[in-house]
Write a structure and sequence with these properties.
The complex is a heterodimer. By secondary structure, chain A is mainly α. Chain A contains 7 helices and no strands. In chain A, helix 1 crosses helix 2 and helix 5 crosses helix 7. Chain B is of the alpha/beta class. Classes of the chains: A mainly alpha, B alpha/beta.
Chain lengths: 216, 274
């Protein structure tokens, strides 16, 4: 199959899928709805398969690091591969319901849960340090941002209300009057952008996801 | 000399900040402050929405937050499920996170009323779905095309709770617990086309993103991280983990503000001299 034909087939399939999905949303035609439902089920299955592909890719990437003994990295990659292999093996031993395997469950309940929560908690320390270093009133805009941030912080923490009962009201004003319209504008603009992107894709002008540069 | 002090105020070693924060976070555990938490409209509406569920009505709880977000999302989920159990609602859990089962198990272990409820009849955990928004759209149309069995492998048609449930219209409301944008999928694929009420139980960071949806009436309620959890615990009348966390929130927020003020005093004092 020639390169041109191969591309045209991809564009055609994309256009058919896009039209089917849009039509399914707006029209209650049984055959059309069934076809769209089938395509969505395929997408769910393909997404699940992508997880397996991701796992294979992960092993390849880290396998290469271990094989080349990349300084400072290969030990961590080795640990990753070992844990991956162990978890997979334990899961496969009770393939119908891996959580019935006590060791498999232990891996999730203790190391995984503790590490996951620790990583997230550490960000609090980084944020505290980053706020100290970055939030400087270098100009009027930065000063306003700083002020709004402090009021919103005091609105979120109950101690703000204890310090002064109006603090949460001011913080709420920044949130509701300052932030909501800005966020709403951003969301609506992004939605229009997405719509335009969809049309461009439908017309074959947006080819980024084919691995090509978009045309004007 | 004085300029040296002002300069030093701007350059406190981050390790000192880490230690001070660590100590400040520990103090409330030794001596709790227990400051009162006022209830926001977003949380009250969430609570009232859950409270309006009648006996036997089906509620979907989408778990799209991992164990790392337990501190922020789990208390709200636990408090919401306590109310749903009081209302004798039927609860379907599912997840788009690979560790969603841990969150489901944590909820069940923290809500004592599950002992009086029957798995498969009153509540069920269907497991993981892939496909992001496409998966959510398909769940709205045909749950059985995404889930054929629950997480234990019991076929979905053998679960009494699923007898008359297969699409969005069969569900009274959706609670989505997020660390990202999964609630958007439920807004677009469940709330807008089918009118299913959706509420968000998220981390504080995404609270701002969902506030426009709440203000526009698209979300019927919104829980703001641990603060939302503490408010829900107060509304439910059973104080829990989020209420304890509020003390840490108080002390850490005050420290951050103090550090910012300190650094800015140093900056303003040295600005013209550099």
């Amino acid at each position: 199959m020639s390169e041109v034909l191969r591309k045209e087939v991809v564009y055609l399939i994309t256009a058919i899928v896009v039209i089917t999905m849009i039509a399914d949303y707006f029209f209650g035609i049984k055959q059309l709805n069934d076809a769209a439902s089938m395509v969505r089920t395929w997408a769910v299955v393909i997404s699940a398969m992508a997880l397996a592909l991701g796992a294979v890719n992960l092993m390849r990437a880290h396998g290469n690091i271990v094989r080349k003994r990349v300084p400072g990295r290969w030990i961590y990659s080795g640990v990753l591969i070992f844990i991956f292999a162990l978890t997979t093996l334990l899961g496969l031993l009770n393939i119908n319901n891996p959580s019935t395997n006590p060791l498999y469950k232990w891996l999730f309940d203790y190391p995984y849960t503790s590490l996951g929560q620790t990583l997230y908690a550490i960000t609090g320390f980084y944020i505290a340090s980053a706020a100290y270093r970055a939030f400087r009133a270098r100009n009027i805009d930065a000063a306003l941002l700083l002020l709004a941030g402090i009021f919103v912080l005091l609105k979120n923490a109950p101690i703000g209300e204890v310090i002064w009962v109006q603090l949460p009201v001011i913080g709420g004003w920044f949130n509701d009057i300052g932030q909501v319209p800005a966020m709403r504008t951003f969301l609506i603009t992004a939605a229009f952008g997405l719509l335009a992107y969809g049309f461009r894709t439908l017309l074959g002008k947006e080819r980024g996801f084919y691995g090509e540069v978009a045309t004007a | 000399m004085s300029q040296g002090i002002w300069n030093r105020l701007q350059m406190i070693d981050r390790r000192i900040i880490y230690w001070v924060l660590f100590i400040i976070l520990m103090i409330p555990f030794i001596r709790p402050l227990g400051l009162p938490v006022s209830i926001t409209d977003q949380t009250r509406d969430l609570y009232n929405g859950i409270r309006s569920v009648k006996e036997g009505e089906v509620v979907v709880i989408n778990i799209s937050s991992g164990v790392s977000a337990w501190a922020e999302c789990l208390p709200s989920l636990v408090a919401s499920v306590k109310v749903l159990n009081q209302q004798k609602a039927k609860i379907i859990f599912w997840t788009s996170f690979v560790d969603g089962q841990l969150t489901y198990e944590a909820i069940v272990s923290k809500v004592p009323s599950f002992k009086e409820r029957v798995y498969g009849t009153d509540y069920v955990y269907l497991g993981y779905y892939a496909g992001a928004e496409t998966g959510v759209a398909q769940l709205a149309k045909d749950i059985r095309s995404v889930f054929t069995a629950d997480y234990k492998g019991t076929p979905i048609n053998q679960l009494p709770i699923m007898q008359n449930v297969n699409k969005a219209e069969d569900v009274k409301l959706v609670l989505s617990s997020d660390t990202g944008d999964v609630c958007d999928y439920y807004i677009r694929q469940w709330r807008v086309p089918y009118g299913v009420p959706v509420a968000e139980i998220g981390i504080a960071m995404i609270y701002s993103s969902y506030q426009p949806h709440y203000k526009a009436g698209i979300l019927f309620g919104l829980s703001n991280g641990s603060r939302g959890g503490a408010e829900l615990e107060k509304l439910v009348g059973e104080l829990g983990d989020a209420t304890t966390t509020m003390d840490a929130i108080n002390s850490s927020h005050l420290l951050v503000i103090f550090c910012i003020v300190l650094a800015n005093l140093g900056y303003l004092a040295t600005r013209g001299k550099k």
